[in-house]
Amino acid sequence: MDGSISYEAAAAMETLTDPTTEPSDSPAAAAAADPRWVMLNCRGYRWLDSFVADARTVAESLTSTGLAVHVSLGLAPPPASSFLYYDLEAGAAADGNPVVIAAHTDAVLFQMTPPKAPRRKRQRRDVPAPTSTTATFDYFVYEAGAGQPPSLSLLPTCDIPKQYERGTALRKPKGRMLQKEDTGVLRRGDGDGELLVAQLEVTHDEPWDTAELCVLRPARREWELKTAVPIIHGDDDAGGGEPRRWRTADAVVSVGDRFLCWVNLAGGFLLCDMAGDEARPKLRRVALPVGPPNESGHYYTVIGHRPCLRQSRNMGAAGSGAAAVRFVSIDSRCCCGGPGTSTCERSRFAFTVTTWTMTLSTDEPMTWVKDSVLDCEELWGLPGYEGLPRVPPQYPIVSSDNPDIVCFMICEGYSDPKTWMIEVDTRSKTLMSIVGCTTNPWEVDSHLPVKLRW
């Protein structure tokens, strides 16, 4: 079946503590069956007949074309990937696989193309017939339930045009596209608190000091546009007193039950307190603890005219309840120990992994605090690393349960690459687990940390 993988292909092949050897009532077995947090792969898949869905995770809804869709999660303890799986009613044709856009606590936002109905299928009376203005994509929110059965809700289409579409022939009649780079979800309060979805669009013209927020509170079922949202530039962000243009974000991070952060891994992040004045929101621009990278000093690839820094940098919430963020940077170093790429063949893969933490506020001064530095020689010398390639780790993911724990991808080779995922406690400098991947390495390079509650 196109676009399908077996759950076994995504499961762990090798761990430092092999769960198959543990008694069923051991702590390791319990953690494997119900992990405290998971790394949710951003690529969803249609499940095969061999996939047995976990009944705790199955939820059902209807697409915009009136067809039933079932969603389940294939859970695995980190650093293995967890996956979102879907299935359609018999005869329905899928057009591509879902894409996970954002996640927070028990909520996962994902996108899928509305499937085509089987021929001669009668339209359900309680679902409007599809029209030429049917949305290009359906957007669903999956909620784990936290003691209740999970739910799956189709979000209303956002018909509010973007800035560049207004007054032009570029207007798309089929609703806004929500993307990982500009859209986040946030659970306000505990358990049954309000869930909101927010998309950011910074003004395209100088002086780049305002933005627009398009916000949906699913309980209200209507999108709201917040215009002229001020961007407050910090003293360390402006060069010569003039605000710099905000570039496209790389990710959106939900923090605690108040904050959303739109993160540009080269230039900083925009912070918004979603618990503040709903009628007059504001954004605060915050610099990163290290400056923009340069080609000779960092490992990254270039897409278009901007670096793809997800390989060597990331930011995540510093714990599930704390109003703080953790930043991780993998930087090349010289063989002498200083920053910058080494010209020595023996040390051409030398690097350091550095982490910082910042407590968030929209009004008070904020400072990055360095937490740890892990040198490549320390990582390569850890018990359990034997046999893995001595190359820089990639795609760091900060645990949503313990920010000291970071997962990385280790990749060797290009034409026939071998890939591992490792889990490291950066504070105690401990290699906690290793997973060998059987899938293409570029299918495990994009994850969202999420702490689902059942």
What does this structure look like?
The chain is mainly beta and 454 residues long. 4% of the residues lie in helices and 37% in strands. It contains 3 helices and 28 strands. It has helices at residues 7-10, 27-33, 376-380, and strands at 38-41, 45-46, 59-62, 68-74, 81-88, 99-104, 107-112, 138-143, 151-154, 183-187, 195-202, 210-216, 223-233, 251-255, 259-264, 268-273, 283-286, 301-303, 306-308, 313-317, 324-332, 351-359, 369-375, 394-398, 405-412, 418-425, 430-437, 447-450. The strands form 6 sheets. An 8-stranded mixed beta sheet has the order 10-11-12-13-17-16-15-14, with no helix packed on it. Strands 1, 2, 3, 4, 5 and 28 form a 6-stranded mixed beta sheet that branches. The longest helix has 7 residues, at 27-33. The protein starts with 6 loop residues before the first helix and ends with a strand.
Strand content: 35-45%
What's the rounded overall pLDDT mean?
A: 82
- Rg of Cα set: 22 Å
Question: What is the structural class?
Answer: mainly beta
Described by strand count, sense and barrel closure, the largest sheet is: 8 strands, mixed
Strand order of the largest sheet: 10-11-12-13-17-16-15-14
Distance between the termini: 31 Å
Helical percentage? under 10%
User: Helical element count?
Assistant: 3
How many strands in all? Answer: 28
Give unreliable regions as ranges. 1-27, 129-133, 296-300
Morphology call: globular
